[in-house]
Amino acid sequence: MPSTGGSRILENYRAPHDATAVRRMKEKGAIVVGKTNSDESGMGSTIERSSFQVTSNPRDTSRVPGGSSGGSAAAVSARHCVVSLGSDTGGNLRQPASFGGVVGLKPTFGRVSRFGLMAYASSLAVVGCFSTSVADTGIILHAISGHDRYDATSSRRV
């Protein structure tokens, strides 16, 4: 699948490998059904600045889903998937979770590998998750957490 980061400049880019969080989900039996929309390069808080389309809030299509990970939250809120991954630099998991009425979790820096993440501020960005319940969010966090030899900032602590 293309990895665009919401930008036309990456329209035909295909990552040479899965991000560690995605790989770990697949190892646990997850089926990846697609990628979601974001503001261009993750820089925005409404998803009105994607190069491809505007993403609406499934609870009220006259409203925005919020955050650069709003597409991931909207997919869970609309029940297009059970869980989804996103990234958070400055509220981009937490804001769309609240806008969409789903559970969103920004893990502590280093808990989840950032290898494969398209980050615009790598010292702040983390991979997190969305679901419809705290229990499911905890299961996903457990699945994607842990040290990664490809990310020197990932923690060895459990």
Topology of this protein?
Layout: H1 20-27, H2 70-77, E1 83-88, H3 94-100, E2 103-105, E3 126-131, H4 134-144
Antiparallel strand pairs: 1-3, 2-3
Give a short synopsis of this structure.
The chain is an alpha+beta fold and 158 residues long.
Radius of gyration: 14 Å
User: Which CATH architecture is right?
Assistant: Alpha-Beta Complex
Instruction: Look at the helices and sheets and give the structural class.
Output: alpha+beta
Number of strands: 3
- Output the CATH topology: Amidase signature (AS) enzymes
How many DSSP H or I helices? 4
Residue ranges: pLDDT <50 for 5 or more in a row?
none
Strand content: 5-15%
Question: H/E order of the elements?
Answer: HHEHEEH
Tally of domains: 1
Report on the biggest sheet. 3 strands, antiparallel
Could you tell me how far the N terminus lies from the C terminus, measured between alpha carbons in angstroms? Answer: 32 Å
The chain-level mean pLDDT equals 91
What are the salient characteristics of this protein?
alpha+beta; Amidase signature (AS) enzymes; Amidase; 22% helix; 3-stranded antiparallel β-sheet; single chain; 9% strand; AS_sf; 4 helices; 158 residues; Amidase domain-containing protein; 3 strands; globular
Structure write-up:
This protein is α+β, with helices and mostly antiparallel strands and 158 residues long. The chain has a single domain (8-144), classed as Amidase signature (AS) domain (Amidase signature (AS) enzymes, Alpha-Beta Complex). It is 22% helix and 9% strand. The chain has helices at residues 20-27, 70-77, 94-100, 134-144, and strands at 83-88, 103-105, 126-131. A three-stranded antiparallel sheet has the order 1-3-2, sandwiched between helices. Helix 2 packs parallel to helix 3 (94-100). It is globular and about 45 Å long. The termini are far apart. The model has no long low-confidence stretch (mean pLDDT 91). Residues 1-156 form the Amidase domain. InterPro entries: Amidase, Amidase_dom, AS_sf. Residues 35-59 have a biased composition (Polar residues). This is Amidase domain-containing protein. Residues 35-72 are annotated as: Disordered.
